[in-house]
Amino acid sequence: MSRVLIRNVSVLVVPEEGECRVDEAQDIYVQDDRIVAITPTGAPGAHDATGAPDARGAQDTRGAQGARGAQDATGTPDARGAEGARGAQDVSRAPGARGAEGARGAQDASRAPGAPGALGASEPPGEVIDGGGLLAVPGLVNSHTHSPMVMMRGAAEDLAIEDWFNRRIWPMEVNLTAERVRVGARLACAEMLLGGVTTFVDHYFHADQIAAAAIESGIRADLAPTFFSSAGQDAIDAAFETTRDLSTRHPRITASLGPHATYTVTDEDLRRTAGRARADGRRIHLHASETEDQTRASLEKHGVTPIQVLEQTGVLEAGALIAHGCGIREEDLPILERYADRTTVASCPKVYLKLAMGEVTPIKGLRSVGVDVGIGTDGAAVHNTLDVWEAIRMVALTQKQREHDAEWMTLSDTLRFATRGSAAAAGLKDQIGVLEPGRQADIALVDLSAPHNQPIHDARAALVYSVRASDVVTVLVAGQVVVRDRQLTTMDLTEVLAEAKDLAHTLVDLSQGGAVQHYAP
Q: Where, by residue number, does the polypeptide cross the bilayer (predicted)?
């Protein structure tokens, strides 16, 4: 049994509705892979609620650089400058914020029947992390990506979407091997963990190698082995079997079925995929209605939108994560509403701008019919980074522009999409996405002391518009410290980078000719 205490940390609270807030001076108690209690630092009864003494004398592992940096930046012993402290305090006292009464409520919640490990424990925590000057946020979720494509970073620039696929990406993917995918996935996992991403939702080839990298690094992953109808039935069957195998490999690995898209997988194969999903109790992760051009082409060729294809083939009934959805039309919304309890959409807006796709995900319309929306990066071959903080910022900005409404996509709504929404997109709505007793202990500790964040008038604004991946100090996944003081604990980053550099040129070589597919939706 492992125990971790994060002491004296500010905590981002993300309710299902209403304003997010920051509660200062909290202790987060972790037992094994779960949060068992969150109590005000030094509050009477905290000992009783968790069964742990106040942990003095246990191993104290303050993130030295982060903690010292916070103190130096403000010049105050408690690592908060007067103005920054007031700003954070004002946020925590926003409408709906709890004072003493709310703090007692949090303490009482930690004692609730069924809170795992909340009662009866007698051993002190094995590790105490000093959270002074840091802000604890739910571990970020990259709700749609192709992680090994970090190996193609910067190799397909300044191209329209057709040429991006046909002249670069799909010809490059002829070069994919299990080893090259493994090397790329290791680099991707390293990048994401260092940026506070604790879960990623992946859609790619050689998914067993991506699973191996995820297990090694300590990150959580939902993996969808990709297939095209053009690859033939044997390849599709192999993808189905890989999905089944992946789900047995590790508690942090889940798996989805991964048909590429409505325009690269036939209706017959989509029906077969939906049948397998229902039989195995899985969902389907695919691209659909990525652009308005794709929707228009589907109507011209088949007389239906891609969303109608998903309904007609049973994909929506089985449950689906739809990547992008920028071409979802008003008439598609009633269809999606019928399956809102099992349908999510992932939005990756930097990609839409870069490829000049003309539209972004219609988040306001999707939410109006109850569809959850998460935030992702897509692959680094187009997004260039796997920085979910950047994606969060882009969602807020592009949605305001799309709706011509500066008051839409508020700070709290943006943070809710990034946490609860992205957890739903990962198929883990009840497990991750918020810091609450009983949830998985996927936690990122963020240092807001750097000049680009200061002064802090509203910590929520800093998280949405200012924070960088490099501000993440410490990361836990399933209760295990995987990043400590901005350093990976599970992998040798120097070795990961060297391996990627050695192999990267082999992936972007176009001399072999051919392509894995042709883009013509």
A: none
Residues in the chain: 521
Higher pLDDT, residue 402 or 50: 402
Delineate the domains of the chain, giving CATH numbers in brackets.
Answer: 3-137+438-478 (2.30.40.10), 140-425 (3.20.20.140)
**Smallest Cα–Cα separation from 101: which of 111, 89, 112, 109?**
109
Quick one: how far is CA 382 from the chain centroid? 18
Which residue has tokens 């029947």? 113
- Number of Cβ within 10 Å of residue 331's Cβ equals 10
121-133 b/e with 16+ CB inside 10 Å = b?
beebbebbbbbbb
Tell me the one-letter amino acid at 205: F
Single-letter amino acid, residue 166? N
Q: β-pairing, 21-31 with 3-13?
A: antiparallel
Q: Could you give the CA distance from residue 48 to residue 335 in angstroms, rounded to a whole number?
A: 50
- Mean pLDDT within 454-480: 98
pLDDT digits (tens, 9 = 90+) for 19-28: 999 999 999 9
3-state secondary structure 161-215: HHHHHHHHHHHHHHHCCHHHHHHHHHHHHHHHHHCCEEEEEEEECCHHHHHHHHH
The per-residue pLDDT of the chain, averaged, comes to 88
pLDDT tens-digit map of 493-514: 999 999 999 999 999 999 989 9
CA nearest 495: which of 216, 131, 239, 237?
216
- Quote the radius of gyration of the chain (alpha carbons, Å): 23
Where b means 16+ CB within 10 Å and e means fewer, 256-294 reads bbbbbbbbbbeeebbebbbebbeeeebbbbbbbbbbebb
Q: How far is CA 506 from the centre of its chain?
A: 29
**Residue 186 near residue 209, CB atoms below 8 Å:** no
pLDDT at 70 > cutoff 50: no
* Model confidence, pTM: 0.88
Q: What number is the average pLDDT over the span 293-309? A: 97
User: What pLDDT shows up at residue 123?
Assistant: 65
